[in-house]
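pls design
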């Protein structure tokens, strides 16, 4: 067992439950202050805004629409437009919306341009200052509502996908309403959910982990398994599945902040710097060849952890845990998102592998193994 001590990063206040979005307007009205909303266009066109929009307009200065993973230039433009006018931020949306809002909230209290503070490329440490943020996820995958990092992507100028990171950047309040997942397309439900799985799975296998993080991850993985086959079910089974997946996603955010991630995200972060692929789909496509790699592992910690995982998730299964898990995930997916899809060029594979790493995994995988994972996940052309 690892001797690393684990720090728990989570929200000061977490509200969980179906219909809990209804608490937002009273929560804002209880402490009136200049508030900026970040959201996606789909939210403004959806039923929640139709129902609550008039009341919310009375509590906000305005809103910013997030249509893609935010770049440093996007963050800087928002900060220039709103600096000094906003005392609180609300984010309602998927991971890209929440990360954009987290980055804005932090950079509104920092004097330099966003790129100066980014991991990998920046030259200045962030400070422990940010605007208070209420994060409300409408997808269950990234766990951004509970993490200490805001992911920023610049595929054009500096070709980087990296984080602004500090414990102070964990949103002050997370409001988790599983009903906000209703009506999402099957592919969105599945690819976001498999992102939550990879957070939990890689944190569980992390060399930085210990009993605390591993048991937290196992709790999330059990919830994931309960939910995975039923995410799009229209009845009570679907309601329970979406509730379980929302909880699994939040636990994934807690786990990744505490124990870190592994080679799947070590590759996905670099691929995301140059290809506009959905992050959850990227993680899911890489997960399956990584399970093939794990099935051959001789590393004692990986073997022990996978044996325990198999007993917890698929008891009585005679197949080796990694292969049994791969088969179960594919057989019970509501949509086979890993089939067909876009291509990656040989030059792009080389670029990604040259910059990728195994992060906090027990094994440091070589360029050959990472190349095999990518070529197993996408058609190379």
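designed seq:
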């Amino acid at each position: 067992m690892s001797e690393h001590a684990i720090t728990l990063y989570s929200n000061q206040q977490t509200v969980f439950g179906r219909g809990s979005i209804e608490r937002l307007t009273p929560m804002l009205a209880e402490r009136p202050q200049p508030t900026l909303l970040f959201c996606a266009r789909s939210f403004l066109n959806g039923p929640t805004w139709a129902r609550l929009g008039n009341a919310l307009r009375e509590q906000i200065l305005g809103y910013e629409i997030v249509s893609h993973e935010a770049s440093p230039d996007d963050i800087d433009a928002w900060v220039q437009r709103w600096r000094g006018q906003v005392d609180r931020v609300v984010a309602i949306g998927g991971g890209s919306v929440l990360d954009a809002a987290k980055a804005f909230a932090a950079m509104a209290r920092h004097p330099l341009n966003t790129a100066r503070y980014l991991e990998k490329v920046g030259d200045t440490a962030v400070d422990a200052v940010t605007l208070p943020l209420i994060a409300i996820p409408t997808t269950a995958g990234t766990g951004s509502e509970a993490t200490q990092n805001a992911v920023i992507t610049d595929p054009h100028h500096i070709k980087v996908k990296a984080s602004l990171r500090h414990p102070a950047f964990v949103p002050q309040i997370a409001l988790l309403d599983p009903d906000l997942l209703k009506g999402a397309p099957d592919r969105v439900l599945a690819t976001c959910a498999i992102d939550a799985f990879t957070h939990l799975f890689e944190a569980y296998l992390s060399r930085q982990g210990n009993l605390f993080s591993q048991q937290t991850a196992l709790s999330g993985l059990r919830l994931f398994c309960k939910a995975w086959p039923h995410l799009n079910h229209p009845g009570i089974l679907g309601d329970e599945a979406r509730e379980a997946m929302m909880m699994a996603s939040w636990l994934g955010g807690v786990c990744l902040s505490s124990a870190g991630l592994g080679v799947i995200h070590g590759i996905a972060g670099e691929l995301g710097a140059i290809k506009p692929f959905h992050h959850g789909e990227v993680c899911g496509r890489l997960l399956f060849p990584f399970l093939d790699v794990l099935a051959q592992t001789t590393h004692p910690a990986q073997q022990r952890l996978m044996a325990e995982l198999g007993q917890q998730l698929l008891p009585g299964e005679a197949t080796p845990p990694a292969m049994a898990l791969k088969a179960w995930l594919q057989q019970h997916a509501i949509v086979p998102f890993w089939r067909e899809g876009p291509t990656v060029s040989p030059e792009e594979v080389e670029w990604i592998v040259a910059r990728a790493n195994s992060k906090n995994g027990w094994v440091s995988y070589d360029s050959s193994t990472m190349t095999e994972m990518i070529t197993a996940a996408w058609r190379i052309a």
